[in-house]
Amino acid sequence: MTILLDLVVAWLVLGLAGLLRSHRIGWVAYTLFPAGALVALGIAAVGFSALTNGFVVERAVLPLGLPDLPFHVRLDALSGCFLLLLGAVGAGISVFAAGYFRVGEGTAPGLLCLQYHTFLASMAMVILADDAYLFMVAWETMALSSYFLVTTQHRIPEIQSAGFLYLLIAHVGALALLLCFGVLHGGSWLMTFDAMRGATLSPAWAGVAFGLALFGFGAKAGLVPLHVWLPEAHPAAPSPVSAMMSGLMLKVAIYGLLRVSFDLLHDGPWWWGMLTLVLGLGTGLFGAVFAAVQTDMKRLLAYSSIENIGLIVAAIGLAMLAYAFDMRLLAALALAAALLHTFNHALFKSLLFLATGSVLHATHERSLGKLGGLIRRMPWVATLALIGTLALAGLPPLNGFVSEWLLLQAFLTTPSIPHAFINMIVPLGAAVVVLTAALAGYVMVKFYGVVFLGQPREPSLMQAQDAGWLERIGLAWLALGCILIGVFPQAALDLVAAVTRTLVGSEVQRGPAPWWIAPVARMQASYSGLWLLLGMAGVIAVMFVLVRRMYHGRMRRTPPWNCGYPALTPRMQDTAEGFGQPIRHMFGPFFRMQRELPAPDDLAPRYRIQIDDRFWHGLYLPLARATGWLADALSVFQRGRLAIYLLYSFLTLIVLLVFVL
Amino acid sequence: MPSLTLAAQLLHVLAAGLLMISFAMLAQRRTRRLIVLLAWQGTVLTASTLLVATTAHLPHLYYSAALTLVEKVFLMPWILLRLMRRLGIEGDSDPLVNIPSMMLVGLGLVIFAFGLAQPISSLATTVTRQTLGIAMAVILLAFLMMIARHKAVTQVIGFLAMENGLFFAATSTTYGMPMVIELGIALDLLVGVFIFGIFFFQIREQFDSLDLHQLEALKED
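Structure tokens for the assembled complex are given below, as produced in the milestone run.
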């Protein structure tokens, strides 16, 4: 525990050290960020040991905070699991960031370094907190430091408004969490989590607390309909920051949801799980469909994050559902799927966001319509991004497949729940999960195909440079994580077993070897990453030998067939819009589309389509208008005279006193 | 009323003095006089706190009496007088409502405050419980003064007088607040006065006057 706290302090010290020479890129980038990555590795090691040591719970009381209200910290399997994630993924992002940030892009590097490391340290403290006070302080620090990171280029109006939206939703969510903790203490007015675990709440109040927690953490994680900030904030932020927010901060929200719904509240009724499951599935499908029609690569990834968060939350909902019916094994399976997917998403989504950062630096282009063919110019980034893409698409033998496999297994074994209504709903849920996973694959084909394959759509892309060596190390580290979890799935399952055992009192059935999982039974639904990898490698090797050595043995480079049309330009390739068109057509009611078609006799035809979120027009804008209207109505009271303002307070005081009287 | 101890009678006299000073402040036009009255109010407050400390044998009240003496009798009036000299404001400030009708409203407020304090003081167990009504009256009168003036400095004086009333209410019902809170409030007041001072300079810079009427221009339409 002491080591852990020292490491968190080390992050803060590194951040402050950035202010010493805030404009020296050599000092900030090549000294402080790699040092931050080392600290992250230390944090990961502590988290790892907390997971493997079994069920030792370490506690400490910090001599900080208010008098009589000190900060409590606690390290158990759940926090260890998320610390491992924070450290392992954070290390990769820090190394990448060391090569990424440059002078002259908004905030000075030293200040950025402070915000960045404060962000990391506050996430660690959220995970460690053992009382509502420290939790909220760290939670708000996290929100504020990430806000400043998002608005690094704060002179651009779009970025300002994106930052404002993010801050607004973060605060509404934090307010819900504050109220949630206010309910959770159950009248004891003690703010430690221990008191909340021991508190007995009436079912109605427990339901209120759970609803508030779902709202608060959902706002941070991006559950529909609180997702609107994600597609705005992610493109606005610098890529390592997007990676941290998507890869780490959303996971901290998942941590909070798990902590409150499994640890602080217990014995929830089954409808909590049902609500969470439905919300998660809706979010997943929504995110996948919207990701398919995006034309900005970071917006696409942001919607894909919404989709993955949806899957994770759906798995958590399933675990709660199973736990409510005391089906421990099933709950453990669903929870393990949720945790593994949390890990996986942190790895591959950070990897992809960082890769978009490299592409952005090389081409200064975020729009998919102006990229293409980068696999030739940026082979390193393209190869590593391919690993992330395949993982996100859920293809074996990478990690995305493992968690989606586990999730599906959990869904398919659910019909044993003794409740007819749920038994009808859950297979539908399984279908939605499959649809979402398939759409994610579609999205990834679009993302990778348009950015890296084909011909460069703009001449300026010919000058694109591959990423520097620090960025390559960062990307490779995350890609390695994707491969390791995919090939040794049982090892990863063993790691999270301690968490499932503490939260739901059971663990997933162990597979026969670290590379072989058998969550249901040995003969049914078992999967071995290593064997699959070896099999695929073998098939490829055999095909290679057959084709290259035995069939003809030579390689020809010829221009592709041009359909007999002589003047093909790179702009005639399938575009992001074109690729997404079938989805746009099939899921038409999801979108709010504005199309401008060129007239038949137009000499310079232009085709424009704008796709908006229905929630934006159906929920947020009316809310904003209502707020504005209310503010206007209240402005009658704004007279501008101080005496009248004082009179208002005076009259309020008198009225309240009369009330007492 | 049963016969009171000497200390309780003295305390009542001091409380009455406090109320008198409040009325005097309500009626006073000149800002410089107002500051002197504020210092007097602080003095009475110090005396009453000392009295409570000796009769109830509460050592921490000695500290808070000392704090009151330093802060409210010397420091704050000195800062305010200095501020006035620096800003070069002297002379009368006409209240928004004429003084006799203000006195009448003030009388009504005192009656209201006593009525309000009746059930509370019958619950309290301290020797000072009878004075709660006066303390509340002092708060309300100070508030009234803030409403009725339109010079920025008088607003601050009203604010400080209100705090005096609160402090008196705290000592009379519960023998004072915990030391931490008292220190905190003292610091807040000091900082508040400094910030007001800065605001005054800014307001004068902007409007060439410290009259609060000018601030109406800030209203958004």
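Chain B has a mean pLDDT of 81. The first helix of chain B runs from residue 6 to 27. Further analysis is deferred to the final report.
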